[in-house]
Specification:
Elements: E1 15-20, E2 25-27, E3 33-41, E4 46-56, E5 68-74, E6 80-88, E7 99-108, E8 115-117, E9 121-124, H1 128-173
Parallel strand pairs: 2-9
Antiparallel strand pairs: 1-3, 3-6, 4-5, 4-7, 7-8, 7-9
Length: 174
């Protein structure tokens, strides 16, 4: 009689390699969108990817603890995929001080709900205080640079005067 061996291969969780954003916390200043780029892999196949997020508005009287999601893509058992998404921020009416906390999630085609999620990213719209502090810092830098330039000009003036005197002395000798 023929004997067959069956080897069960465990279904591994999907993998996410985030390319962009490349920092966990970043400012979104005048940006109207966040570029999100990542590569996902799974040993048997992918089902879908999405973004989970919440928005913290420190100036609101009522705190919104709601979590939302945006479906990015659905896959037909593809084993790896490079995803690129431009997340438009204009519908959220962000104001200085607001923060978007988000993460990327991926589910493979395993019926046992094999889901993997990245750590949270924090996109911060700087507060007015942050903006003014940054402007003050830049102003101080400009003052320092101006002082350095004035000192260099004064040094050049002194050098030119010395050269002029040396030239006068040399012409008097002849």
């Amino acid at each position: 009689p023929l004997l067959y061996k069956i080897k069960v291969l465990e279904d591994l969780k999907p993998e996410i390699y985030v390319k962009s954003p490349n920092q966990k916390t970043f400012e979104i200043n005048n940006q109207t969108a966040i570029d999100i780029s990542f590569r996902i892999n799974d040993d048997y196949g992918l089902e879908k990817s999405w973004i989970e997020y919440n928005i913290v508005k420190p100036n609101d009287v009522e705190v919104d603890s709601s979590h939302y999601s945006i479906l990015l893509n659905q896959y037909s058992n593809i084993k790896n995929y490079d995803e690129y998404h431009i997340w438009e921020l204009s519908p959220y009416n962000l104001f200085p001080g607001d923060q978007i906390n988000f993460r990327i999630a991926v589910k493979d085609n395993n019926p046992k709900q094999s889901i993997i999620k990245t750590d949270y990213y924090h996109a911060i719209y700087p507060s007015f205080e942050d903006i003014f502090t940054h402007l003050e810092d830049r102003e101080d830098e400009i003052k320092d640079m101006s002082s350095d330039i004035i000192n260099q000009i004064e040094e050049l003036d002194s050098m030119i005067e010395e050269i002029e005197l040396d030239l006068l002395k040399a012409s008097d000798v002849d």
